[in-house]
Amino acid sequence: MEIKVHKLKSTMELLKPVVPKKPSVKAIACIALGNGKAIGTDLETMVIANLPEAKEEMLLPFAAVSEMLKYVSSMDTVKIELKGKMVSLAWEGGSASYPTEDYANFPALQDMQIRADSQLDGDALIAAMADALPYVAGAPGKGGTSRPVLEGETLILGNPVEVAAGDGFRMTHQVLGLSYPLEEKLIIPAHSVAVLEHIFQKTPRTPPSTADTLVKAITAKRMLRVSLMGENKLRVDFGTSASVIVNLIDGKPPEWLKLVPTGEPIMQSQIFALHFEAAVKRVRDIAKEGSGIVRLEFINGRLKVSAKGGDQEISSTIDTMLTQGESKRVGINQSYLLDFLSGKQGIMTLSIYTDNGPVVFEYSKSPRVLIMPMQVQWADTPPAEEPAADIKEDVKSESGDDTESDSENSAETAEAETEPVAEE
Which of 9, 15, 151, 225 places its Cα 20 to 30 Å from the Cα of 405? Predict the structure, then answer.
């Protein structure tokens, strides 16, 4: 096959997130070329890029070839041939050859029955999934947990489409203005969500055929075809450029929607996010010495942000834009709080619905975030007999051992996952 170097580079960049550096199967350290396609997979997620130049079937060693292409002009044309157990590349002024694997050892692209499919607004769907990614227990950089259902995002299909995720102490939830012809709950692995976001950013927007003006072409929604295949696979087609096939996590997702408070909050406050973030940063160093707790006290329209650690104590008071309801105080993990406030510049809303329930944070069009409060010993109250609840205690699966009722939840459940709720 002959192909422009810049096109080969962009194709390999597209497939990069699914090519493992330490593969369990040698063949998947390569990308498969042939039948007009280039394919990469890590056995969890498969990316298929349309590549008309790829006619001959062969496996291209990914790491070696991508490193070599860094030093080849993007304007050159490279000729790629399979010669026995070697794959050779030649371009004007140079050549290279590498040992390769048998094409038959690469995971085959299986034909599976499509149970349902529909066009969805990719701008809304991918943005919502990307926003939820930091709250997944198995998000990149967090490591795994003992409960796989927490290691992915829950995509709730139907009317409306919803996205939810949580790590046991925090969760996020967003309702999208989209609908799908089949009602079903899917658990998409965190890494697969990152791959979907990567492909969405790297593939071109294809203007709809009905866009008869430049303005309509630029402002048109980017539609993706979302298909359910077989028993546990999700396929997303990015126009004619690429497709992603995801192996879904087995099991029924937690009952996220039961955790979202309803009704009227007993206290709600609107706060300028930049002022709130600055106040938390002032106290965070001492908070780290006190189990990471930041204390929030809402009194007479003002917010006191404080922390205690050892013999040290610090506080910072800011005005709120508007506070309604009862005067409340609550302890929040400083890291979780700063994660939410990061990058926000306008007015955010903090709501408390019950004394021991999650604190609800909202900002503009971002998804709603729930953070469980931390156990705090206030100076004017006796020690609490019971530790603060954990979102994980309420995150129960719909089947198996996780079907116990909310009233039977215990701290043992929380301890099975990550560190327990901090106490002070």
Answer: 151
pLDDT for the residue numbered 356: 87
As a whole-number percent, the residues of the chain with pLDDT over 90 amount to 70
Q: Is the Cβ–Cβ distance between 325 and 343 less than 8 Å? A: no
Which of 212, 237, 258 is the C-terminal boundary of a domain?
Answer: 258
Its sign, for the CA torsion 423, 401, 148, 246, is: negative
Q: Is 239 left (phi over 0), alpha (psi -120 to 50) or beta?
A: left
User: pLDDT digit string (tens) for 125-148?
Assistant: 999 999 999 999 865 555 555 678
**How far is the C-alpha of 146 from the C-alpha of 416, rounded, in Å?**
7
Residue 87 included in any domain: yes
Nearest-CA neighbor of 170 among 86, 277, 256? 256
Rounded CA-CA distance 18/191 in Å is 9
Would you say residue 266 lies in a domain?
Answer: yes
Locate 303 and state its tokens. Answer: 């917010």
Q: Where is the domain boundary, 225, 258, 291?
A: 258
Count up the domains in the chain and report the number.
Answer: 3
249 & 290 share domain: no
Residues in the chain: 424
Same domain? 230 vs 305: no
Q: Is residue 424 part of a domain?
A: no
Strands 322-325 and 267-272: antiparallel
The amino acid at residue 186 is L
Instruction: Give strand ranges (E) for 94-209.
Output: 94-99, 114-121, 152-157, 162-166, 170-175, 184-189
pTM above 0.90, yes or no: no
Q: What burial letters (b/e) apply to 247-261, b meaning 16+ CB within 10 Å?
A: bbbebbbbbbeebeb
Q: What does the pLDDT look like over 337-357, one tens digit per residue? A: 999 999 999 999 999 999 889
